[in-house]
Amino acid sequence: MKVFLYQSPNGYCYNSDTIFLFDFLSQFKLKGKILDVGTGVGVLAALIGKYFSSKIWAIEKQEIMYKYAKKNFEINNIDVNLIKGDFLDFYTDEKFDFVVSNPPFYKVDKNKSKNECISIARYEENLPLEQFIQKVSKIVTPKGYFGMCYDASHTDEVLSLLKKYKFQPEFIKFVHPKAESEANIVMIMARRNSRAVCRVLAPLIVFNRNNSYTKTAKNAFLKANTHSIKAFYD
User: Fold this and answer.
1) Model's pTM, two decimal places?
2) Measuring CA to CA, which of 7, 89, 133, 144 is 20 to 30 A from 166?
3) E-strand spans in the chain?
4) pLDDT digits (tens, 9 = 90+) for 1-54
5) What does the alpha-carbon distance between residue 150 and residue 24 come to, in Å, rounded to a whole number?
6) Quick one: which of 89, 102, 81 has its CA closest to 38?
């Protein structure tokens, strides 16, 4: 089943990071109550809803992204409890079995986009890492999971903060543009109050030397089976 996704022609658009994150997460038994933080146009939540029979929540603070996500869940007939608001201000009595997210992780620099929608989706200042992880620790079940991706150059910081808030990284996978390139993305599945050993999985290599997609990358895109429709929200 193809997943159709409306998104803005001139705003932030989802990219391969989210597709690869879903491919990584889908190897685990995503069940129970799942929360997607910063859902954007709803890509990750929609894909989870397509493959797993779970109760899905999603939160998004940008009005335009919220509208696109709502439309995308409707046209794909995926039941998601969509919440408009800032995750750091989010309060609920619910406890989640899984929290998943492709959060903003770029540090602010001189080339920061002037497009507010793009800026909020990309830059870490809009969802500071420590506050983000601390908040997740408060809303997962005592043995709940936290699956995320982040800038690989900040892996040490991510792992340190996960440990600080009693998350054990159980699985780690790096994404490399090419086999000879440094990793640019790290994907982590951590569990609250776990004593499991950390397993570093085989890396995901995106491109072959001739710049074509590797078999692994192609399979991730095929599994997601998304179709982007760039159109202004009506």
Assistant:
1) 0.90
2) 89
3) 3-7, 33-37, 55-60, 80-84, 96-101, 140-151, 167-176, 185-192, 199-200, 204-205, 226-230
4) 799 999 888 777 788 999 999 999 999 989 999 999 999 999 999 999 999 988
5) 13
6) 102
Q: How far is the CA of 195 from the CAs of 5, 127, 192, 199, 209, in angstroms?
A: 39, 28, 9, 12, 39
| CA pair distance 233, 216, nearest whole angstrom | 34
Q: With beta carbons less than 8 A apart as the criterion, state whether 135 and 88 touch.
A: yes
∠ Cα 92 95 101 (to 5°): 90
| Range with the poorest average pLDDT among 119-128, 177-186, 195-204 | 119-128
Q: How many CA atoms lie within 13 A of 110 on its CB side?
A: 0
Relative to beta strand 167-176, strand 185-192 is antiparallel
Q: What residues form DSSP beta bridges with 202?
A: none
Tokens of 217: 């990358």
Q: Which amino acid is located at 127 in the chain?
A: L
* Whole-angstrom Cα Rg for the chain: 17
pLDDT above 50 for 121: no
Q: How far is CA 85 from CA 3, 11, 40, 61, 104, in A?
A: 25, 19, 12, 4, 16
Which residues on neighbouring strands pair with residue 55, listed in sequence order?
Answer: 33
CA distance linking residue 66 with residue 53, whole number of Å: 23
